[in-house]
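Annotated sample (chain length 576).
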Amino acid sequence: MRWTAFAWESASRAFNNRPTFTGLVVVLAASSGGGLVAYADSQPDQPQGFKKKKVVVLGTGWAGTTFLRNLDSKLYDVQVISPRNYFAFTPLLPSVTCGTVEPRSVVEPIRRILEKKGGDFKFWEAECFKIDPANKKIHCRSNMGTNLDGNGEFLVDYDYLVVAVGARSNTFNTPGVTENCHFLKEVEDAQKIRRSVMDCFEKASLPYLNEEERKKNLHFVVVGGGPTGVEFAAELHDFVTEDLSKLYPSIQHLVKISLIEAADHILTMFDKRITNFAEDKFGRDGIDVKTGYKVVKVSKDAITMQNPATGDIAVPYGMAVWSTGIGTRPFVVDFMKQIGQANRRVLATDEWLRVRECDDVYAVGDCATINQRRVMEDISEIFRVADKDKSGTLTVKEIQDILEDIYVRYPQVKLYMKSKQLNGIADLIRTGKGDTEKESVELNIEEFKKALSLVDSQVKNLPATAQVAAQQGQYLATCFNKMQTAEQNPEGPIRIRGEGRHRFNPFRYRHLGQFAPLGGEQTAAQLPGDWVSIGHSSQWLWYSVYATKQISWRTRALVISDWGRRFIFGRDSSGI
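Output written by the structure step:
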């Protein structure tokens, strides 16, 4: 009883002394489903008059959700906006298309995620259709109902904005794709594909169709030889051979699966050993892999593709899935025009995930790309900072004194040295000046430029994957949590242009490996250190990793039970 009274008194005191919050932080993070997140939490240990900044988060995909899960809600007033009220484990969408995993097993309600985190928050199921960076406002629209004006629109202001809205499928303006093809970006897409597969089989079973019409309905075309397209083709093949062949014995021999890729090989982002194995396995399985073909038109009944050797070829089909890459969402394109990025393909950020040419706006995930600063753009400033004695030349020792800061600010320097098997800065300088046996050897500005002239060749854009988005979300949340202390105690590298140090170290992606399920309980795995594994053992590694990476114990239990159900009873073929 005494403990209860003490707790109530403490809570009342904290409530009466609570600070007022006027700031709003908006966070926009790239993920497959656009959204905005905001929440607030009282913090009784803050000084009197402390005002929380308002953070607005757009999106509940990998980047946005990871940001929210790691953000200290006691420091900010957070609001979340997204057209979907859940997080989806997108790497398992190909499994959803064929009933290996059920749709609800791969989603977790965003309100449940925020509830577990604790603290007050606001979530609105709506979509952002305009960003006003000049006035720090977000224009949103809800499909759930209407306001007094009848359009369901409302405004949200922010102090910080995090954009995590993901990307849409890229059709490359190919005629007929939007009208006639399925995409595989959302849970709803996977459900539509599942129903469409069953519709094709049921239609092909009708008694009044001839054999050519049945072949057409049972021709499944996958456009795009990347990980998503390859995994879906493999899942579909397993579904047909292991389950549907028993239910539709009279037509199962008419089924054909085609995989069309414009490049010379599929899975070009993987090791060549994996690419070759995948192509050979698909050939043995009867999956028709057409490389070097570009789809130029999709009609209701046929797909037209081009090849330099054969010209245009029209192929009849029953269902087509388009998986050729990602494009920028329309409102992000409009935002890019406002801030002078109209000529770019995606939203550009710096190495700290801040949108270029726009204050207090951050972007993470598929909707953005990091525009890594080039060494040669700053070579004169680097020389100036390193030349502490203002002699106009640099010694090896002077370069070594700022070498760690250069590695952090320009990671391509270290990557270049590793690729060329250079043991140290002396080896690198040797390309600018012959004799570097002594630390006193000096380089002028032109020799310094020559030594570093090729390091920018190692700059590469990060892939648009869930792994990258999640790491960016976690990094950005860590920066937000440290923002106040970092002002007084910066931990980043030396500012090459300016004085002092950056508040934080720039974002660095750590590649943890990638998988390519190839069907038949075989998976290709490529892990750091050039470690490649292909076969049944890698499939069990895939099961372990994907079960571990589930966002909650609920989804973990559901996914594992779905896998067990499939082993025992097979996949469900209901057309729902």
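Annotation: The mean pLDDT is 88.
Annotation: The first strand starts at residue 27 and ends at 29.
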